Structure prediction request, 360 residues.
Amino acid sequence: MPFLDNVLQPPSYGWMDAKGELVKPSNGRIIREFFSRLNVFKSRKNWLPFFSWLKVLCFMPFFFLFVFKFMSPWMLLAAFAYSMIIMGTHGTIWHHRYCTHGAYKFRNNFWRFFTQNLTINVIPEEIYVVSHHVHHAKSDTPGDPYNAYGGFLYCFLADVNHQPIAKNLTEAEYNRVKLLMKHTGVTGNTYAQYQKWGSYVNPNRAILSWVLNWSFWYLAFYLMGGNALACTLFGAAGFWAIGVRTFNYEGHGKGKDKQREGIDFNRNDMSVNQIWPGFVAGEWHNNHHLFPRSARSGFMPHQVDMAWYYIRLMNRLGAISSYKDSKKQFYAKYHQPYLEQKTTGNVPAESGEKLITEVI
Prediction:
């Protein structure tokens, strides 16, 4: 696993100590690391995390206008639906299941572009995708960029402190980054440009994409409901941009064993299936860690999966040409043996052993 060991820029406090155990920095040290790595005057290679948080700050005026000027029951309902359901589901559809895991394929580049820009642009694909591969390979162990054992701030500020790619990759290593990103449609830097900017995406392209996306959606929302609706939904997107950074801490039990028998079948890490993220974003996280390449993670009847409903609909419309669905494997390998064990009282042969998850 040498590539995944080295692909992310390590924090100044390191991933592990001399004994191979997770370094748990103090909150003060995490915050100092955060501001150091946002400092574009110190190094222009810090531009991408700075850009990511700049977008968050740009949401704030919209949020305050919503709260203090345009707040009403209808606007509050619109903000809730957009932040909790639409933005959350889109993040699962685009960043998680497609960009990272390639769980489905688009018919052509138009439908990929359409899905990419279904919502207001928030998270740079590069920061999410590469680090998420590392997360699956090292989940809840040293090197996991959002390791819940590190604490809340360790996860919340991970997009700056732990998730950017390393700045000293060899050309061969950078080419492997390009392979991880190629299908996303995000145009990558040449190796010489990477050495200058320290990123896969070029700042000029990233800024242009951001401006065009935000301009389109503000105009669209304005035409639908004036400045009130536009400010409300942009403010809601900002609320989501902050809230989504808390997910992996919660989704891995806050560093504690919160897995439940008959619900969380993956025992290789601390991931848990949660009702709220599942219902609003299709993020049944323990199921996802069992079958990361599946376009569906809501396997059981009560596990609503709106991200899957979008993928399935687009497949029927011809926009998505193929997808992977691991529901049958889940029932055959995990759920049915569990039910048989409960019925007969027999301990299955694999009892006491770690379940083997699907290889990334």
In short: Residues 2-92+99-257 form one domain.
